[in-house]
Amino acid sequence: MIVLSGRDLNKEYISRDRKVRPLQHVDFDLHQGEILGIVGESGSGKSTLLKVISGIEKPDSGMLYHLDKEYTGSKPEKTGKFLQMIFQDAYGSFDPKMNMEKSLKEGTASDRNEIVRVIGEVGLSEDLLDRRPRHLSGGQCQRMSIARALLSHADVLLCDEITSALDVTTQAQVIKLLMEIRDMENVSIILVSHDLALVSMICDRIMVMKDGVVVEEGKTEDVINKPSDEYTRKLLNSIIAV
Amino acid sequence: MSDYLLKINGISASYGDEDIVKSVSFSMLPGEIVCIVGESGSGKSTLIKAIHGMSDLKITGGNIVFDGTDITSLPAKDRRKLMGSGIGLIPQNPGASFNPIRKLDVQFRESLAAHDMPFDENRIDDMLRIIGLQHGKSVLKNRPFELSGGMNQRIAIAAAMMFEPRLLLCDEATSALDVTTAGAVVEELLKIRKTNGTSILLVTHHLGIARKMADNIGIMKDGRLIEYGSTDKIFDSPENEYTKKLIRDVPRLKK
Amino acid sequence: MLAPNDPYATNSSLIRQAPSAAYLFGTDNLGRCVLSRVLVGARTTIASTFFLVAVSFLIGIIIGMLCGFYGGIVDDILMRVADLMLAFPQMVVAIAVAGILGGGLGGAMIALGITMWTSFARLARSHTLSIKNEPYITAARLQGKSGLQIMMTHIMPNILEPVLINALTQIGTTMIGISGLSFLGLGVVAPQAEWGSMISEARAYIQIAPWAVLFPAAATVITIVVFNYLGDAVMEYRKAE
Q1: B and C touch per CB criterion (3+ pairs under 8 A)
Q2: pTM higher than 0.95 for the full model?
Q3: Structural domain tally of chain A?
Q4: Domain end: A110, A129, A153, which one?
């Protein structure tokens, strides 16, 4: 079953007298319960794609569907009912003046018991609920934002470079958590990252983007082992492995 | 003993009350590449600043010997002489090391003049070609904000190389770059060592880069150097639990 | 309350008395106690200043948030109006408006308020612009919060401090404004005690009874300096945090 899909998405704007086309005829399908990786370098359009999917930005043309229902042009206030975003800047995704409990309660009718259960599920303890984002570590903050997304009962999590500001060891934990909640909560996940190795570890399928175009798409094993596109090969070659 | 280009003896450094670098010791031979690996808050960038010395960091213990001279508490004037031709620095954010709205050639001219070195356009051109910029002269007519991050980082490397330093300090020199660009910068750094015999001290959180470049690797955690050894030893038979965890947690391509 | 004598009681036998134990600041042309009038005048001057700054602050911050958050044509129009206000010196506009409205404290406050809200609006707008693309605002939208809710719960608390500090630093100039208009006869009308109007009245006989000018003037200067220092101190404190 396909939870979320986009057809022929286009977006362009003028920046410093130059035409930028972050999305050119982009199609995607997100299946129920899968983790889809979108890989690309800066300027590839991968972050714009997430903004368009979530309704933060409008596509110039193209269609977006959630469970076969079109939602193109819906604002985040509407799309938030079925999708939630996890941001690169974990600290910035919480109001600096609010404690965690208040922030988590914003979009949910859940009571404190339910909140405590969910933050337990993401590996956090209840006492952190009284803290403001500044008094959490980057990893704790990112776990909190995953908890917030889960509390709003969204089917889809959109993750935008969610580990690139984290340390290697913390990154490993957050990635593991993402796989766990996929199994426990049966959510579908889009993971945008510049790190092909990271994406290959947890994604079922991979889309490679360059200059607003999807240059390659397929099952993770196929993209990694039998890349059909020149740019994918270049990306694979530039991984400085351990 | 005097063979060492850089010798760090139990250095401790702080910005205030608490030491951020805690009695770190290691030495570097001429032409050697050492990578210091650590996570945020490990004190690895502070270590670079302590060696570079041009900041309000306080050295609270130990000493740093560069080429037989104790440079731990060198007066700013003498230190400035040493910078450039002795020790070069490639900062983490290349944008911050240039004035973003002034033309690059003007900035090059000024910093060369500050070290009593001639402004030789052809030499700069050669230098930029080494690090992979073919049209050096026209690139230098630009202002830093008009160029990409990767371009600025390459120019920052060229600027540091211009003075032919014997020791090049790199503070996360690739972490702000795209993967493909980062790979190219790593190649260029290796090439510089090969052609000029430059020693490179590179601080990074990226274990892959450390493995590719370093002769010796040091692992830092909470201000201490918890493990130091040859690259092969660190990766093949790490002793410290934290080192093992770091190596284990690096994402690997799943084939 | 604190005034030792009735500030409005005239006494023809005590005209222009030099400062003494009974009348610490002396008396004015009508034999009124200058100290009592300075104290009572403080109430008028400071209260009206606070009220004016508070109202301008509220109007400014609301307009600024709306402009910054929604942008578009409303933003364009309101900001051009604000530009227009800033194009004239504040005092010139105030004198003109107060002149049209006639005397009175209310008129003076409207005259000053007409330009004052713009600085708060501009500041609130720029701070709103700088935080409205923060992930936590986007997150709140994805939680289904409306623009108005986001402005009240997220934007207002986060821009309040800088705008409030700006308000503190404006108290001094506002006080000068009100006293100035009163001095020109466009603000508080006699016999009500207000520092500006006191100076204005006593100015005529400054050579005979300088204290009647000196004390309200000193009160004005000291109060303004104190509030300016307060504003600076709060600003420094915020920076240090």
Answers
A1: no
A2: no
A3: 2
A4: A153
